[in-house]
Amino acid sequence: MKTLKFKNGDQMPALGLGTWKSEPGEVKKAVLTAIKEGYRHIDCASIYQNEKEIGEALNQAFKEGMVKREDMWITSKLWNDSHKKEQVIPALEKTLEDLQLDYLDLYLIHWPVAFKPDVSFPEDAEGFLSLEDAPLTETWKGMQKTVDNKLARHIGVSNFKKEKIQQLIDNSDFVPEMNQVEMHPLLPQKELVAYCHDRDIHLTAYSPLGSGDRSEQMKKDNEPTLLENEVINDIAEKHNVSPAQLLISWQLHRGVVVIPKSTNSKRIQENLNAASIKLDNDDMEKINGIDYNFRFIDGSFWETGGKEYSQEALWG
Ligand code: A2P
Residues 6 or more apart from 160 whose CB is under 8 A from it? Predict the structure, then answer.
């Protein structure tokens, strides 16, 4: 399995199992299947509300000797209701308790958006904190403490545009080590990838298959279906692989981490097998050329928080 190296020598498996939308009741089996098949990287978040079940799977895998803790890479994310500096460690401790772990390999600020404590999803502007009340630079200081306290080995961000990363860099000695963002051929994020790679910041691609299992509320009318894209299907056919496998392989060839979600045993295995596909320059160029600048997860659900959480402020 290809890995991405961190400055201290740690290596992150470039292909991991995504768990957003993996239902409690299904996710334990999915994680155990993935580990049996050879996955060594699971991507989690407290807001996915399934970390307890993932913890049961990890505990079982370690107890039964399927894999050692040190051979797994576990990522999780700080939710928006815990952005005050002093809330970060307690939030991480809850995640560690649920996952039945002593430390995380990677902890990320999930969104550059802050809520009042214990508001999971604000119904109106009242539930938000402004970035003045909860500055990202302060949240970042809380994140650094998780490394000092050996609760997280690496820290980073998610859904950050380059200006927001630069703000963290300009105000601390600690450069984020990872930015996890939506990325696929409809949204290749070329500028952001170049900016991050220039600064030794790794990237993880979420929704690499287009997250077709999102709730209807999160879908737009007439949105494109990534897995049915003609260019993708033609190149997949040429290599005798599935469109999903091609999408995963394209990310691995670009030097980013990819975390396809599946709770289906056959597809969990299929996705891992994508690691051995070899694409040529012509394939890569054709896929790179798709670029619709289209987001499936556009952050419009934070617009009730006002101008500083508008789509323009998030991505523009
Ligand atoms: P399932 O969990 O039933 O396998 P994303 O990773 O972009 O969020 O996409 C997840 C969606 O893609 C889920 O609906 C998942 O369904 C589906 N999926 C995962 N792997 C494959 C695959 N190999 N082929 C087709 N669909 C897949």
Answer: 109, 112, 176, 179, 181
In the block, which residue shows the tokens 């993996």?
22
- Total-model pTM: 0.98
Q: Among 167, 198, 195, which Cα is nearest to 181's?
A: 195
Q: Which CATH number is 12-221+256-268+292-315 given?
A: 3.20.20.100
Q: What are the pLDDT digits (tens) for 241-275? A: 999 999 999 999 999 999 999 999 999 999 999 99
Q: Catalytic residue positions?
A: 48
- Alpha carbon nearest to ligand 1 atom 24, residue: 244
Q: Any residues with Cβ below 6 Å from ligand 1, and which?
A: 18, 207-213, 227, 242, 244, 260-264, 267, 270-271
Domain ranges of the chain: 12-221+256-268+292-315
State how far the Cα of 251 lies from the Cα of 27, in Å rounded to an integer.
24
Amino acid at 15: L
Q: Which atom of ligand 1 is nearest to the CA of 210?
A: 7
Please, which residues have CB within 8 angstroms of residue 220's CB and are 6 or more apart in sequence?
none
Query: pLDDT for 62-96, tens place per residue?
Result: 999 999 999 999 999 999 999 999 999 999 999 99
